Model the fold of this input.
Amino acid sequence: MKTIVYVGTSLDGFIARDDGDIGWLGQYESQEVFRGFAEFMDTIDAVVMGRRTFEKVLAYPSWPYRKKVFVLSRTMTQIPENLRSKAAVVSMLPGELLTYLASQGFSNVYVDGGKVIQSFLREDRIDRLIVTRIPLVIGRGIPLFGGLDHDLRFAHLKTEVFANGLVQSRYERIRD
Ligand SMILES: NC(=O)c1ccc[n+]([C@@H]2O[C@H](COP(=O)([O-])OP(=O)(O)OC[C@H]3O[C@@H](n4cnc5c(N)ncnc54)[C@H](OP(=O)(O)O)[C@@H]3O)[C@@H](O)[C@H]2O)c1
Done:
């Protein structure tokens, strides 16, 4: 089982404004960024996201995922009817969820949403980080990273520079 984070952040490390706005990210999108994300999506077989990220996705003009989506929530009981074949709601700790997904045959899981990524990192359940940094400082917002009980060492795999000054870096968790 591999878990991968693929996010865009401001230069100061935020994934969205306090109110969840990500419009500032969209201004920097380009064909190569779209292509890179599409290639990444081909490598995974399930998406795990937080309820707040899911609610944001619901506002998109159409459902963007071809892979099965698992929405983590302790408050949401149902997925909208039109999406029930594409998404499911789950309430488990990161380790429990990964054991469940492995039992269902999934092996490469994309983990998305600030709180969710932070809870997976706290349990040391993230194997790969792909972070695209946008050259914009927004001052405050929802952070990518949060508190940890101990340091997590990652190896740098690759950094690419895209149009509009986007810098994408890939890291792999080193476990002794
Ligand atoms: N820049 C990027 O690449 C990027 C990527 C992803 C998301 N975003 C943005 O980030 C924002 C959302 O991030 P966020 O940090 O606010 O929220 P989030 O991580 O998407 O969702 C948090 C919610 O997930 C649920 N949750 C988390 N861990 C859980 C667990 N172990 N078991 C059960 N439920 C759990 C809880 O829902 P309940 O309260 O229902 O219990 C919690 O309130 C959105 O604006 C989204 O658009 C940006």
